[in-house]
Design a protein that fits this description.
By secondary structure, the protein is α+β, with helices and mostly antiparallel strands. It is built from three helices and four strands, in the order E-H-E-H-E-E-H.
Length: about 80
């Protein structure tokens, strides 16, 4: 099973949509709130070159935003 991490903030509506989508698909995931987490902010900036959420990390693959097609592909979801 894939290791899934979501870098998000409480004020991000797309983060909530992404979390709900994964929950409904039965995918286990860890949520990392970047609001006051400088290490997480630096990490997603290093990986993406952006300061935007949501960022989803599936194993070693990074997806910026709620790219449903890409996420489903990486998680082998139908």
């Amino acid at each position: 099973m894939a290791v899934v991490k979501i870098y998000s903030s409480p004020s991000c509506p797309y983060c909530e949509i992404l979390e709900q989508f994964l929950y409904e698909k039965g995918v286990k995931f860890e949520v990392i709130d970047v609001t006051d987490n400088e290490n997480a902010q630096n990490y997603i900036f290093e990986k993406t070159g952006k300061m935007a959420v949501p960022v989803i990390e599936i194993d070693d693959e990074i997806v910026v935003g709620f790219d449903k097609k890409k996420i489903m592909e990486l998680l082998n979801l139908k």
